[in-house]
Amino acid sequence: MRAIILAAGMGTRLGDLTNDTPKALMPLRGRSLLQRQIDGYRAAGITDISIVRGYLSERIQFDGVRYFENPDYATTGLLPSLFAARDAMEGGFIFSYADTTWRSEHPAKLAAALQGTDAMAAVVDVAWRDVYVDRDQHPLEEAECVAVEDGRVVRVGKCVTPDEAYGEVAGMGGFSGPAAAKAVAAWDRLLAEGLDTPFGQKGVLRYAYVADLMQHLADDEGVPFRTVDVRGGWREIDTPQDLACAERDVDW
User: Fold this and answer.
1) CA 21, 22, 25: angle at the middle one, nearest 5?
2) Total structural domains in the chain?
3) DSSP string, 144-181
4) Which of 213, 219, 221 shows the shortest CA–CA distance to 89?
5) Are 96 and 237 spatial neighbours (Cβ–Cβ below 8 Å)?
6) Looking only at Cα atoms, what is the longest distance across the chain?
7) Which domain covers residue 147, as residue numbers?
8) CATH number of the domain to which 224 belongs
9) Is the pTM of this model over 0.90?
10) Which end of the chain has less neighbouring CB within 10 Å, N or C?
11) Model confidence over 203-231: pLDDT tens digits?
């Protein structure tokens, strides 16, 4: 299983902290968010790691990883960033958002759950409300949640209300080999219509989330969409308050 880390964004909600430093390089307990992810993947036995860079890309330099570039990081969303790493998708892959930190058990569980399937999956925190304690700058309504029926994800994204939510996507998801092939084919069809074609929660493909493509594959192509459940063990760093809470709470 391969890993793709999405690290192209500017991180404007961190204010002056990202004036000269990519969000993915924010230090947390002595290690940058990116170093923590690289270490976490390797601890899980995943050594084929790619990073999609964009903002201040020259600052992101680590040994033993592969790089892809999203030069349009300022005018595109997470889904176009993911497909900047299209060449790293064959055979299945895990993706993660670079502004998160998590226990290495999470990618290990996700890789095991995808092995030998035709499915896609997201790591989902079923105790997700706990990570919003003391985070009034990042309200519950901004969470990327999932709604589940009969063990399958039926809706994913910020369109899922807190009352409907089974849990929150814990910064990570993945595609088995067959599901990855379907994802690439779907992306090619969508991109052929142009980045401004209607798609997803933000209206057009240009700004789409990865969750939008997963929803599309589940709804239109019948790709099984599952959850890999965890209880805590991760944090998202979106605001200075998030960083302070993570400094206090992270113990991995």
Assistant:
1) 90
2) 1
3) -EEEEETTEEEEEETTS-TTT-SEEEEEEEEEEHHHHH
4) 213
5) no
6) 47
7) 2-249
8) 3.90.550.10
9) yes
10) C
11) 999 999 999 999 999 999 999 999 999 99
